[in-house]
Amino acid sequence: MERAEKKNDRFEHKTEQDPTIVYGKNAVTELLKSGAAVDTVFVQDTMNAAQAGYYTAIAREAGAVVKRVHAAKLRGMCGTEGHQGVAAWAASVDYVSLDDLLAEAARRGEPPFLLLADGVEDPHNLGAIIRTALLCGAHGVVIPRRGGVPVTPTVLKSSAGAAARLPVARVANIGEAVRRLKAQNVFVYCADMDGRPAFQQNLTGPIALVAGSEGSGVSPLVKSLCDGVLSLPMAGGGTGVDSFNVSVATGIILYEIMRQRGTEGSI
User: Is the pTM here over 0.85, yes or no?
Assistant: First the structure.
């Protein structure tokens, strides 16, 4: 790239959350085509339809979320007027593969223990889930490239840094990840209200837990692929609340898995 082009196409550390910001048309295009992990692409809301469509297409191909924003937002993020209408957040962590997570379990001489987030959209929930997974001895977390929040700076902060310590794999879709895990003899459960109480289930051995989205829970396809469904008994009626928050429910089940695995001497 010529020196003149670098004036507006550069890597910066700005914004209130201090992620790595890449801005300018050439820089963002190169980043998305490089295969590097990208969390979010921001496109100015006044960009012409053809250009906006181009960046939306290559961003989605790279597994990034696309957001249309006002020019003032871009200026604040990039710290300059020279953003050329487009910017990207480079990934806050280095994602790994599903095989890497299984290899980590093997390295530690333990049966695999993984958490899969099926469409978790709130970064605070994902951060809390990752934090609990780390503290409960999980070998890693699996998130989808689309349909859920990536590991953003907010996720890192909400996880109290756990998202930088626990390996996170980003896969094409959670259903395929479930199939691959079952092929490796990992028993996959999902959390849902119509399942068997978690405390009545044997949760030792190779295991993966699927946590669903805040609104609709685990998707029907993923649920149909799971080996079992776990629920959490709640107090009687009249509370006015009919379910646990996803991060709370996931945390309770993760702790029960850790407790049972501990009694087996596997952690």
Answer: no
